[in-house]
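Objective 1b of the project was to move from sequence-level analysis to a structural picture of ligand recognition. The entry below was assembled by the postdoctoral researcher (A.K.) and checked by the PI before modelling. It contains the amino acid sequence of the target and the SMILES of the bound compound, calcium ion.
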Amino acid sequence: MSIVGAADFNSDGKLDLFSEDVSSGAKTIHFITGSGTSISISNTTVLTSDTSYRMAGVADFNADGKPDLIAEQVTNSSDPLFKTNRQIWYTNGTAVTSKVTFLDFDQEWTIINAGDFDLDGTPDLMVEQFTTGRKGIWYMTSNSIREGFEYVTLQEKWKSRCTGDINKDGNNDALFQDTVSGSIIVLYLGNQDGSLNQWGHKYTYQAVNRNFISAGNPSASTDWKMRGFIDHDNDGKTSILSENTNSGDCAIWSVDSESNLGSLVF
Ligand SMILES: [Ca+2]
Ligand SMILES: [Ca+2]
Ligand SMILES: [Ca+2]
Ligand SMILES: [Ca+2]
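Corresponding predicted holo structure:
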């Protein structure tokens, strides 16, 4: 099982987890109950099973209050330029109601996460090329790509994990993990009004926090994969949803202080 993201599928005001089992293709909602430091997963619902598409994120693309799913076609081809379908699967919270293909494009670009980078109310997509380190954003208008561009290239070892506004300046930021040491950096992003910055980019990093979670911190393990920025208890503070891909534990890392993360494992 792999956590894809979190969203409120049953509209009870509490975030639910959404996961995928790549071998069976099962895409499952996990309903969270409890509050504060006492939370657990109460029950699960398999939304759909499909091994031909992997889940790349959860976001509401048609603003109906129901989470929708970002899906990438799975292929056996190792050709980076092999064209694959990228889809949005609309849901009513309990079932997939329709699917729209918004792109048929080189599979070397992988969708990592969704976030509203230009603050127009529509989720945009954080993308990367694993082998080249190129990181980009695909701006979406509803379910079509309006524009795509690259905002940074990092060394290959830095893998995109998730996006969210970690320093609360109104701009989405991006979190990357060193796939060797497990340490985590944050790129604080900005300049999203469409103007060009000094490098001619429309959106770029303004600063980097290289020591967000450093090697030596128990959390800086390659076992932990960050799945999204969430506010699970609606306290206005952003936390990081993380999953230990070795033990299967889920954790919410609260980000009161960037050097001192609280951890709630469930
Ligand atoms: Ca819920
Ligand atoms: Ca929706
Ligand atoms: Ca947007
Ligand atoms: Ca920010």
